[in-house]
Amino acid sequence: MKKNLYQIIVDDLSRDIHNGTLLPNTKIPTEQALAKQYQVSRITSKRALNDLETAGLIYRKQGSGSFVQPDQITTTASSAAIAASPAKNDILLIVIPTNNVSEHDALATALNLALQQTASTTICKLVLADKLLATITELKTDTLSVLLLGDHFDHDMIYQLYELNIFFFQVATIPDPLERPQLLLSTTTAIQDLLDNLPQTATQLYYCGLTSENNYSDQALKIDLLKLTRQHPEFKLHLLDTLTDLELNSELNNVLIFRDFYTLLTYRLQQSVVPSPPTYLVATTLTSAQQSLLKTFNFSTYAIDTDYLLKVILQSLTTFKKSATMVNNPIISAKKLTD
What we know:
It is a single chain. The protein is of the alpha/beta class. It folds into 3 domains: 5-68, Arc Repressor Mutant, subunit A, CATH 1.10.10.10; 80-184 and 307-329, Rossmann fold, CATH 3.40.50; 188-304, Response regulator (Rossmann fold), CATH 3.40.50. Helix content is 39%, strand content 21%. The protein has helices at 5-18, 31-38, 42-54, 79-84, 105-118, 132-139, 155-163, 188-196, 216-229, 261-270, 288-297, 306-322, and strands at 27-28, 58-61, 65-68, 91-96, 123-128, 144-149, 167-172, 182-186, 204-208, 236-240, 254-258, 279-285, 300-304, 331-333, 335-336. Helix 2 (31-38) packs across helix 3. The N and C termini lie close together (9 Å). 35% of the residues are buried. The model is unreliable at 73-88 (pLDDT under 50). This is GntR family transcriptional regulator. Residues 3-71 form the HTH gntR-type domain.
């Protein structure tokens, strides 16, 4: 798959930071300089710098520019291995919520494969949340780390991790009030972009919920939709829990918004021959196969690029472990996916 132009800039600068070409506190070229060097717009170069800042590779000083973040590991080894590697012979448990496996298993599998490719001395295990403490007891090792994928985990389990002094961090869509180490996945920017660019004829927005029970990230998206549509009084928002509540025709003033890929797929398979209203998917993550299928249906899609997300997670495994008291958790925003 051809790289986006901004991703080329991100990859080049990430490589130079990791291999020592750009040393800590070195000034990064400006948006204007990068735009000229790579023959892209300033919007593209700005996005690249924003992504580098989100990944913790650079920091910014108002009026001075962007600089390489201190404490980045610099070596001639490959940048992927640098970003990823916990200590040798570590065991990383990738934990998925027991009651919501399907939403996270694809990301967990992709992460497991990425870790195996970049850190072969790290043993990775996929674990359901209700089996985590038993698995920790069986392993009996002090070189253990835990990565939680999902929004809601039992508070007693979290307390046990603290009590056992086990390093962990969480990939979630909802900030934790206790300020535990988290990598936050956000759809707020994507929803704002979607609402700003809807067809002029659009007046009725139908948010189609999950066909199964709603989860925390689904509720967070509903709240974001309610907040952001207040800035667009021309739209009326309808929140639907299931597809059975969706009874509409192909009139141009209707717009459908989905959060879950499989709910959208079910809707597509149930469609009649009449043209579909403008349809959007706002997700956090999608597999490459899901993205390809969505393109054939001509649905507009907002999500986080999976390859980029994996890079940030791998980097965070190192960053969070170095700074267990970190409060300023990085945020990755979903963006409109293009060919």
